[in-house]
Amino acid sequence: MAVERTERRSELRIGFFVWEYPPRLVGGLGTYADYITREFVSLGHDVSVFTLNDGQLKTHEIVRGIDVQRPLIVDSSAIFPMLVTDDLKKWGTNIKFFNDIFIYNILSATKFINYCVRKEEIGYDVACFHDWLSSISGLIIKQELKMPIVFHVHSTEWGRTGGAGSEVVTHLENTSAQVSDQIVTVSHAMKDDLTRHGWPEPKIDVVWNGVDPDIYDPNKVKAEEAEKIREIYGVKEGDQMILFLGRLTWVKGVRNLVQAMTFVLQEYPRAKLVILGKGEEQRDIEELAKRLGISENVRSRFEFVPEEERIQHYAASDMCVFPSTYEPFGIVSLEAMSMGKPLVVGARGVVGFREQVVSTGTEQNGVHVNGENPADIAWGIKECLKDPERARDWGRNGRQRVIKYFTWRKVAEQTIDIYSKLIK
């Protein structure tokens, strides 16, 4: 039976549209979706996730109490260039990616509207959709059902591409901002950026992302596990292991970090930079390290690493560096903080790291730098390395800050509060 709006339950029924979801993870958005939906259910709410199927996953299953829908898609990428704008024709081989996103959205919205709501009469209270990747679903649902929709913005096309991105994606983002009933974004830096670009400030709320300090707990990693990680990368006793973890794309500042190592090695010749991740800059990183003559001090593993191994890498490191020039939030820094590691983070531009990392005072847990400047990145690294005991204090402060402000339970409670106010 449909839920009567005059006799509302205290629990909410949420339609949750996100293009990546376990076991298919690509980046931070999938991690967010994984943890936040678990917390919604733990708080007593019903969640139906609609996500992309790569053709190898079940089309419907219940995972930890979460209803997961993965409609099978088809490849119509050969047809798109005949029908769509010149902008999409420029995507080249990437048109297959847009095809997958488009078909996923159409099938998901159709199943949600015609099967779940109209046939099964499931009384959803709200539909939330995450980034442009699920925006088509949100727009269709709003048009067909007139129900409240919430647009969660984790990044933007202009930010990811430096203003040179797809007109179609930008149009989807802007339209979603205008049509949605509420916008939720991940940092105050991001809210300011959205407002500067003309998005309606009164309906933008900020909810930080989170981390699970029970999983990201340095006390749960055995010393021999951490030592094994250091051995893999040739980090010997007395060496310093500097860890970068993330997508290898220009906004992450990884090439600037490699250049920074030339300055660091002048004072700390035993420092080793370990780069963990994959992306379009893999070859550039290797060639740059070779050209600078520091290949022995820059070790890379170009692949997506499972969570357990990521935790071991954090535990093995002496510090973590994330010199992003565009990073609306950045969950990796929370993971490192929860693991008790001092941080050097980019803090110039649209970067949420500066809201996580305290750079001065008694609660300091790291250093802010200009991610566009290799010399400034090097200064931050050396600030951490020159006083190991102080760096350990920063790490302890970071973990306490996570427990106080950045748990997934807090994220879920704040998000549910926004949904509830919107519904009322």
Structure characterization notes:
The strands form two sheets. The chain has an eight-stranded mixed β-sheet, with helices on both faces. It has a six-stranded parallel β-sheet with strand order 11-10-9-12-13-14, sandwiched between helices. The chain is built from 17 helices and 14 strands. Strand 3 and strand 4 (66-69) form a beta hairpin. It has two domains: 5-210 and 408-423, Glycogen Phosphorylase B (Rossmann fold); 218-405, 3-Layer(aba) Sandwich (Rossmann fold), CATH 3.40.50.2000. It is α/β, with parallel strands linked by helices. The longest helix has 25 residues, at 95-119. Mean pLDDT is 93; it is low at 1-9. The chain is globular and about 65 Å long. Helix 1 packs across helix 17, helix 4 (95-119) runs parallel beside helix 5 (135-145) and helix 13 packs across helix 16 (388-405).
Please give a handful of descriptors for the protein shown.
424 residues; alpha/beta; Rossmann fold; 2 domains; 6-stranded parallel beta sheet; 15% strand
Sequence-ordered SSE layout with sheet pairings:
Layout: E1 13-17, H1 28-42, E2 46-50, E3 60-63, E4 66-69, H2 80-83, H3 86-89, H4 95-119, E5 126-130, H5 135-145, E6 149-153, H6 157-161, H7 167-179, E7 182-185, H8 188-196, E8 204-206, H9 223-232, E9 240-245, H10 254-267, E10 271-276, H11 282-292, E11 298-301, H12 307-316, E12 319-322, H13 331-338, E13 343-346, H14 353-356, E14 366-369, H15 374-385, H16 388-405, H17 408-423
Parallel strand pairs: 1-2, 1-5, 2-4, 5-6, 6-7, 7-8, 9-10, 9-12, 10-11, 12-13, 13-14
Antiparallel strand pairs: 3-4
Helix pairs in contact: 1-17, 4-5, 5-7, 9-12, 10-11, 10-15, 13-16
